[in-house]
Amino acid sequence: MGTPTSALFALGLVLGATPALAQAAAAAPDQPANWWSQAGGERGPTRIVWAAHKNPETPYTGPNKPIWHIADILKAHQGQARWEQQALLTRDFDGRYVQMAPGDKAKCMFYADDRVWGWVYSGQVKVTIDGQEPRVLPKGWVFNVAPRLSYCMETAGTEPVVFFRITPAGQVPSYPQNETPTPIPGYTYEKVKITSTGGYDSFNMPFFNVDEYGASSRTGERFLYDGHTSSNLNIGPPLTQLPPSTSWGHFHENMPEVWLNVYGQVCALISGIGVVHGEYGDLINANEERWHRATSCPNTGRSIRMAITPRSKEGQVHYFQIDQPPGNSRPAAPLWTGLPARAQDSSPAKVRERVRNRFSVPLSSENMPPRPGTTSMISWVCFHAANWDSLI
């Protein structure tokens, strides 16, 4: 992989599962004349822009790292009946591997305005959510607790249960009246009343069988999606070889993209790291503004990676290389056909030279200086699909 912090790239915004990515210059036939002010839509034509890329790349801090192998976590906690291992902490999410011993029962609790969700790696856990029938979840199931709904968890059966759970970062839980709140420094729990409710809709399901989904031919299904939180089940089709090293995928501004490997094996290229190989249950983290490209590992069959991302409902901007198609394969003809020859030359040396010089003509009418600690880059815009497997 080259030097992603100094390269031409493309930006994709795709809302809904639309195939408009191939339309590099033409607008959709039914697009309004003034697409800039189109209400709630991002169906505008492809455009070339400048975007800032962190330089040097965003470091991994705290519990965050490119990949957590669950085999290493289990080994580190060997001999312990119950434990928690924090593996993710971002602005939005706190993700932890948890083991509960047989007979263990967690306190019932809820979060005021954000969801809790998780996936069962091994064993069985009984999950009780307000308004839902209690469910015993074996390996491969996920649960989705809507805001303001209390949830309770207890081990089912005679074996420990191991699961990965995501809660809102930096938030403290509330408890139903019949629970005793766990003390938290700096807070005093007071007895109050609320009338707010939570619930489910066509985009959100309290329980979902990922193992069954992965073994089927079904695609495009989701179990969790709202204005703050998204957890798409991104399917990677079988591959015989990885995409070429010149295909870097995309990156996001101001947010990491994290995947929990919930079916098959996932190979992810992360800039500055290389290709990481995720086994079942591993957590992969492409830190904010790092290029990343995730696929099934070659000759391992289909894979599913459970994305852990914010802002999906409003759309997540994808920054793509300008000399590669959205996704991981090269088109028959370059997307930049018709641009001057100097703009078509995408060799690494020329790319780095253009970025260092912030060359902006004819690709941009502005020559904006980059922010401190960033490199200014040229991009083209398409559109992010909130549930498009090949991109996220």
List keywords for this structure.
392 residues, mainly beta, Jelly Rolls, 6-stranded antiparallel sheet, 4 helices, disordered N terminus, disordered C terminus
Mean pLDDT rating: 79
Q: How many β-strand runs?
A: 23
Enumerate how many helices there are, as a single number.
4
Q: Assign a percent range to the helix content.
A: under 10%
The Rg value, from CA coordinates, equals 22 Å
Order of helices and strands: EEEHEEEEEEEEEHEEEEEEEEEEHHE
Question: Approximately how much beta-strand content do the residues carry?
Answer: 25-35%
How far the N terminus sits from the C terminus, by CA atoms, comes to 19 Å
CATH class of the domain at 93-209, named Mainly Beta
CATH level-two architecture of the domain at 93-209? Sandwich
Major pleated sheet: 6 strands, antiparallel
Q: Which regions are unreliable across 5 or more consecutive residues at pLDDT < 50?
A: 2-28, 329-372, 376-392
The structure class reads mainly beta
- The shape, in one word, is globular
Topology summary:
Blueprint: E1 10-12, E2 48-54, E3 67-68, H1 70-76, E4 83-89, E5 93-100, E6 116-122, E7 125-129, E8 135-137, E9 141-145, E10 151-155, E11 161-168, E12 207-209, H2 210-215, E13 229-230, E14 233-236, E15 250-251, E16 257-263, E17 266-270, E18 274-278, E19 283-286, E20 292-296, E21 303-310, E22 318-320, H3 341-344, H4 348-357, E23 374-380
